[in-house]
Amino acid sequence: MVFAGSALALWLSKRRHATLQMTSGPIAEADEEVKLQDNHLEKSKKKQKQKKEVDIACCGFDRVKEGSCSGTVSLYQRHVFVCTGRSDWPKHTVSEDEEGFLELFSKQLKEKKAEFKGNAIKLTACDEPSKDITGSDILLFPKSIRYRNLKPENIPTLLSDLKQDKIISRELTVEPIHERYVFVCSHMNRDPRCGVCGPALVENFNDQLSGKNMGVIVRKCSHVGGHKYAGNVLVFPGGDWFGYVTPSDVQSLLRYILSEHNIPKLDKNSIESVEMSPELRPLWRGRMGLSEEQQQAIVKSWGLPIDEQKKEEVH
Q1: Sequence-ordered list of residues with C-beta below 8 angstroms from that of 284, at least 6 positions apart, any chain
Q2: Which of 148, 152, 155, 260 is the most exposed place for a label (fewest CB within 10 A)?
Q3: What is the mean pLDDT of residues 218-234?
Q4: Are strands 121-126 and 136-141 parallel, antiparallel or unpaired?
Q5: pTM for this one?
Q6: pLDDT band at 115 (very low <50, low <70, confident <90, very high)
Q7: Do residues 295 and 210 share a domain?
Q8: Which of 103, 84, 115, 67 is nearest to 285 (CA)?
């Protein structure tokens, strides 16, 4: 019994010693490090939540509007969307340090800008993936055609097609676009107003279209100009631009997109060819193919104010 008692005392002594080591040795230090990391993570999440709340307040749909968006689209005749399959574009979508299709296409297009005078092209990235992994696709409006599987070496031929405004090359794969497209500027790295409003609108559009075969495709796109008018929505094939769009406007926009008014007409450069429901008129920024003067004449005929500030340059 004496031996048993001594053994028990020895066991208890060792246990106390081990406990002391755990509270002061390497294990305790590791536990403390884990606690510090957890606290840091918790603070980081709290800051992100606060920042998100600030972004929504300053950049969301309820922010203070900065003037009329009516008649704020510079004249251009064609819109090319490069299918990048992503929406996390850097601040400047086209980087001089990269040599991808988008960068090379943009560079060569700018070099030949004078040759496209009177038939200007606006170049934008979108998150639609290309159909082939070996090249890049572009969507061209108002022709509503897709060039598929383009590679850097195809750019001169593509530019020749675009310059002639017709498909003249046989080496490029071209197919018609039958769907109607909605592009929503969601370029967060360029401006948080577009980054906050854009994805929310895309989600709302897709919710409205879910389970319905309407032939409408909604995509995120990069900077189009006029961040202060976010949410910025562009609809094709008609080429109308809308600003200050909120989720409550989505149903009205879908009715317009599905109407015949979103189909290009031979007289689409005439102000008489623009027909817009009253609830959408204050949101109408302009239309591809119309000059600023034509847009302003339309807006004035609706009795709406004009934003006299300098319009965004088309590039």
Answers
A1: 69, 70, 240, 241, 242, 276, 299
A2: 260
A3: 95
A4: unpaired
A5: 0.79
A6: confident
A7: yes
A8: 67
Residue 259 or residue 154, greater confidence: 154
**Residue 110 CB burial class (10 angstroms; 0-12, 13-18, ≥19):** exposed
pLDDT digits (tens, 9 = 90+) for 37-93: 666 667 666 556 545 554 566 889 999 888 899 989 999 999 999 999 999 999 988
Same domain for 134 and 233? Answer: no
For residue 69, being part of any structural domain is answered with no
| CA–CA dist 106, 101 (Å, integer) | 8
Assess whether 129 and 206 both reside in one domain: no
* Distance (Å, whole) CA 37 – CA 173: 54
* Domain that residue 14 falls in: 2-59
Q: Find all residues with CB under 8 Å of 296, minimum gap 6, and list them.
A: 70, 71, 306
pLDDT category of residue 313 using cuts at 50, 70 and 90: very low
- End-of-domain residue from the set 148, 176, 204: 176
Average pLDDT over residues 135-160: 95
Digit-coded pLDDT (tens) for 227-248: 999 999 999 999 999 999 999 9
The whole-chain average pLDDT of the chain stands at 83
Residues linked to residue 184 through DSSP beta bridges, in sequence order: 220, 233
